[in-house]
Write a structure and sequence with these properties.
Layout (H helix, E strand, L loop, with lengths): L1 H5 L4 H5 L12 H25 L17 E14 H4 L13 H10 L2 E9 L8 E6 L12 E6 L9 E6 L2 H46 L4 H21 L3 H27 L8 H9 L5 H34 L5 H30 L1 H9 L4 H6 L1 H33 L8 H6 L5 H8 L1
Antiparallel strand pairs: 1-2, 1-4, 2-3, 4-5
Helix pairs in contact: 3-7, 3-8, 6-7, 7-8, 7-10, 8-10, 8-14, 10-11, 10-14, 11-14
């Protein structure tokens, strides 16, 4: 009587160890082989984090330009409509010529009603101080009473000109949107969603506490990006999908693909002569920290940007091969690979299109400027601004495409190598197929 009661108990853990589907356990020998690869890699990542860990963002004297300005919170306490001619000092061209942009702007500043806004500083040492901001009728950002704003502080300017409005305060709607996102993830994903949010927090921590300060301190951007991306990958995959052989195969596939992206990115960034210094923001970074390797920073961005999509592809392919094996335990690694790669081809088509459209959407204003200038496709592609995005997109896409066969063959080899023997995948997958009574008769 004791044997029938105790025998079926181990069945559920074998078939339903993880919430993302049945995961057949692999043998102890195979786990040792995977550990022999991943433990040295994880150790190297930890050593790299310790060796390159920064002591914080290095100090510098603020330039007062762009993002390097001192800012405080403010609030619009009053808005009064006034005649633009009474508050603007712009001079209309003597001829009244409005054919040039400067002429049209000067005329507009003398005509119509302007908004004269009184702003109160609500944070910092000057909390409670008020100043006046004049808003032109054609300005893209209009102010309204009670609105929260971000103000820039210029300590070297005359007192009446030390503060100016530079943006709208969006903290509340952004926080609300983040809360809705977190709630949706938890409601749908449940515990897996909670772990995904924790992994996201870890990713941001690695980015803000390690990668960015280390680069600013002069460390090689490529080395820092590889170490940081590896740490993010290990934390995200194992926290979200569990410490299993299936996850470990996805980690190895992601690592191989990241190495390929790094090699291709380094080759084509150098070959195409991309400097990585193409706009005001990168120019400001280079001015503040001349020792930063801007082309290395570009390559680091490609690696980090590709990591998120790579995780999705490698985990999906590994899970597909595992499920195929459990559906047909007798299938060899070649059959598993052929079936898995058919699934991967659909994934490749959608992911590559997603990447290209994402980069095209981000560069849409730039593409519009080229369209206005009636530039040819060759001229546009040859521009460094666009060439950077092309290299970023194509190198990342090549890595994504390569990750599918690499991860699929790794998963097929691992899961098929464990088909025989006690505790192997075949026993684990075959057991749930029998009825409880039949299994007791066979093993009892």
């Amino acid at each position: 009587m004791t044997s029938p009661q105790n025998d079926p108990a181990p069945q559920p853990p074998q078939g339903h160890t993880h919430s993302h589907g049945p995961a057949a356990p692999v043998s102890r020998h195979l786990r040792k082989v995977i550990a022999a690869v991943l433990i040295p890699f994880a150790t190297a990542v930890v050593v790299g984090l310790i060796a390159f860990w920064p002591g914080g963002v290095p100090d510098h004297e603020r330039t007062g330009v762009g993002f390097d300005r001192q800012t405080q919170d403010g609030k619009v306490v009053q808005v009064v409509n006034v005649d633009c001619a009474d508050v603007n000092a712009a001079q209309v061209p003597p001829t009244g010529d409005t054919s040039t942009p400067s002429g049209r702007e000067a005329v507009n500043e003398q005509e119509g009603e302007c908004a004269k806004a009184t702003i109160e500083v609500t944070s910092g040492d000057d909390k409670g101080r008020r100043f006046v901001e004049v808003v032109q009728p054609d300005a893209p950002r209009q102010l309204k009473e009670g609105q929260g704003v971000v103000v820039a502080y210029a300590p070297d300017a005359p007192r009446d000109l030390q503060y100016s409005v530079i943006d709208v305060n969006r903290k509340i709607p952004m926080a609300m949107l983040a809360g809705i996102f977190a709630l949706a993830v938890v409601l749908v994903g449940r515990m897996r969603g909670v772990m995904a949010l924790v992994a996201l927090a870890v990713s941001f921590a690695v980015l803000t506490l390690f990668i960015l300060p280390a680069i600013l301190q002069g460390s090689n951007p490529l080395v820092v990006a590889v170490i940081g991306a590896s740490a993010i990958m290990l934390a995200a995959l194992y926290m979200c999908h569990g410490v299993t052989a299936r996850t470990s195969v996805a980690v190895i596939g992601t690592l191989i693909s990241l190495l390929l992206i790094g090699l291709l990115g380094s080759l084509f960034i150098g070959w195409a002569g991309l400097s990585g210094n193409t706009d005001d923001n990168t120019g400001l970074i280079k001015g503040l920290y001349p020792d930063i390797d801007m082309s290395g920073l570009l390559l680091a961005g490609i690696i980090i940007g590709s990591l998120g999509v790579l995780d999705d592809v490698t985990v999906t392919q590994t899970s597909a091969v595992w499920e195929l094996h459990q559906a047909d335990p007798e299938m060899g690694w070649k059959g598993l690979y052929r079936a898995g790669i058919r699934i991967g081809r659909d994934h490749i088509a959608s992911v590559v299109n997603t990447l290209v459209l994402a980069y095209a959407g981000a560069a849409l204003p730039l593409l519009l400027l080229f369209s206005i200038a009636q530039s040819s496709v060759g001229t546009v592609a040859n521009s460094e601004l666009v060439a950077e995005e092309i290299v970023r997109t194509l190198v990342g896409s090549i890595g994504l495409v390569a990750s599918v066969p690499v991860t699929t063959v790794l998963a097929a080899l691992v899961v098929s190598a464990d088909r025989a023997g006690p505790g192997g995948a075949q026993a684990a997958t075959a057991a749930p197929a029998r009825t409880g009574r039949g299994r007791r008769r066979k093993t009892g």
